[in-house]
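Entry for the shared binder. Reason: the reviewer on the internal report wants the predicted structure included alongside the sequence.
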Amino acid sequence: MRLFSRISNYWLCQLGGWGLIVFSMIFYKVGFRENLSFLDLARISVFFFGGIISTHLMRSYLKKKGWMQLSIEKMIPRLLLAIIVTSIFYSLIIILFFQVLAVKESAKDFTTRLTGMVLNTGLLITPWMLIYYFYHYIESSRRQQLNNLKLQSLVKELELKTIKSHINPHFIFNALNSIRALIDENPGRARDAITELSNILRSSMQAEKLETVPFERELNIVKDYLALEYIRFEDRLKVEYQIDEDTLDSPVPPMMLQTLVENAIKHGIGKEVKGGLIRIISDYNGRFHELIVQNPGILSDEIKGEGFGLSSTRNRLQLLFGTNSEFQITQESKNMVQVKVMIPVSIN
């Protein structure tokens, strides 16, 4: 067993294939109740070693020229040429050994004998060549497909890292300005605000390492975010939560809900003189975890164009869940815009 483990698959196939031909020749002789003479064994040995030598030389030439990487269209004429040349070489080996062994052949001239021998050996070389080429063609296609899958996976990973780690810099600047204003007026609230901002930044950095997080963790980050925005908007910002507690353990993409709420603040509360209500809903709808964010406003062309925030959310859902997820942004009433995300729930 150790010996076979050290022999490459190529040589195992070579020895096995030509060995099968030798066995069939011996079986043919024995089947007709003929005795195997020394001359018969010599003939069989010539066929065996000649076949291995000629096909191995052909293989070495094909690898050196890089023909195995060519397309089928370009390879077909080269295959025919390789089969003819190898068959001629194989036939010359056999004829040469017959001359050395002083085997008496028919009275036919050399050209006729060579032509007949080429036709005979071609019946062995042709299937050998076809099997060898198409094995490598299929193997090369499989490796190419595997490399493509690895490349797609890498692209997907890079895309996810790019789009899920995004935080609006304007929010950070606004939060810092709000905290600065609180330092003298309300130091305790300023300390809490720094903690809330720290939690958001920490979550953003960790988002690059995770594809999903428990919804409860995402919800807590959103609450910190809204607490910071409340410092800026005060009574203009009202928040309502409608959360099914069963959904708290459900996995969601990190920073996704925060992105949706940030978008609601920017296009809703920020543009309404009197502010308004941000409503966050989390519930199960069939086999989906349904997340809804509602905010006051009109669904303008700017929002429909979906800037980085909404487009990144759509892309992340597509990358993580494919067509199983849903993303909708609609004008639910005269002055209410709704974003709805449907995340498939895995059922064990």
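Summary line for the report: The CA atoms of residues 92 and 114 lie 7 Å apart.
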